[in-house]
Design goal:
CATH class of the largest domain: Alpha Beta
Protein name: RNA-directed DNA polymerase
InterPro entries: DNA/RNA_pol_sf, Retrovirus_Pol_polyprotein, Rev_trsase/Diguanyl_cyclase, RT_dom, RT_RNaseH_2
CATH architecture of the largest domain: 2-Layer Sandwich
EC number: 2.7.7.49
CATH superfamily of the largest domain: Ribonuclease H-like superfamily/Ribonuclease H
Distance between the termini: 37 Å
Strand order of the largest sheet: 8-7-6-9-10
Number of helices: 10
Number of domains: 3
Largest sheet: 5 strands, mixed
Radius of gyration: 21 Å
Order of helices and strands: HEEHEEEHHHHEEEHHEHHE
Number of strands: 10
CATH topology of the largest domain: Nucleotidyltransferase, domain 5
Oligomer: single chain
Pfam family, one: RVT_1
Enzyme class: transferase
Structural class: alpha+beta
Helix content: 25-40%
Shape: globular
Strand content: 15-25%
């Protein structure tokens, strides 16, 4: 993985790396042939080899890690989503965790996924599980809403490492979330519920937490793409995170975001 990431310094083409797999994308056929030639020359200089039987070239769409990727964007395999929608209400903790795990795989396609699933995650905590026959309205709404979202998830824009990004963050007592945007199109969504200790945070600390976690989640996209604009609906945090006299949690969050080339603005 480290060696593959080192290739980024020597290749101008647009490509993504996951472990030892590489996706190389181009604007047109001629550019694609040039990109492939450059890529092969660079890895040859690194002493690396590819297995021809595992390579595919010139495809308009590929299926990768359970997702279809094309010039139109990234979308989940409809068959996988159909399987989730066929899952019946869980009647034991194992079934509930299996359902949440299946949904979690597609979380980057679902805005506010953690917020929607919050009532069901509460059931996984100590002595809180109950069968679906005992669910209240909030828990049923959670189960049904997430299934509805998965019936027609948004198509995510393919990331372009040659262009910069915008991240819109949000924080509340129900959780934190963010969306990564490029050219006004969503590239990925992120959300999670709050830990018990985080529920006692001041709202400014929650906003700083959301920014810090979003940058960590989206770092694979934004590093090396110029200044990333962070948009938040919390006006004070824009200036707070630039201060030099911060202490406690805010100082910790400030330190965590200093490694990134960002500008925080109020939306």
């Amino acid at each position: 993985m480290r060696a593959m990431n080192e290739l980024k310094k020597y290749i101008s083409a647009s490509f993504l790396i996951y472990i030892d797999d590489v996706i190389l994308s181009s604007e047109n056929e001629i550019e694609h042939l040039n990109d492939i030639e450059q890529f092969l020359n660079v890895i040859s200089n690194f002493g690396m080899r590819l297995k021809l039987e595992k390579c595919e070239f010139g495809l308009a769409e590929i299926k990768y890690l359970g997702f279809f990727i094309s010039e139109n964007g990234i979308r989940p395999d409809p068959k996988d989503l159909e399987c989730i929608n066929k899952i019946k209400p869980p009647n034991n903790l194992h079934e509930l965790r299996a359902f949440l795990g299946a949904v979690n795989y597609f979380r980057k396609f679902i805005p506010s996924c953690a917020k929607i699933l919050g009532p069901l995650y509460e059931l996984t905590k100590d002595n809180k599980f109950k069968t679906s026959t005992e669910w209240n309205e909030e828990e049923w709404n959670s189960f049904n809403e997430i299934k509805e979202k998965l019936k027609s998830p948004p198509v995510l824009a393919p990331p372009n490492p040659k262009e910069s990004y915008i991240i819109e963050t949000d924080a509340s007592l129900k959780g934190i979330g963010a969306v990564l945007i490029q050219n006004k199109h969503p590239v990925a969504y992120y959300s999670r519920t709050l830990k018990d200790t985080e529920k006692r945070y001041h709202i400014n600390e929650l906003e700083a937490l959301a920014i810090s976690q979003a940058l960590k989640e989206f770092s694979i996209y934004i590093i090396g793409t110029g200044t990333t604009i962070i948009k938040t609906d919390n006006s004070p945090i824009c200036s707070i995170l630039t201060r030099k006299d911060l202490t406690g949690r805010l100082a910790k969050f400030q330190l965590s975001i200093q490694a990134y080339d960002i500008k925080i603005i109020h939306r």
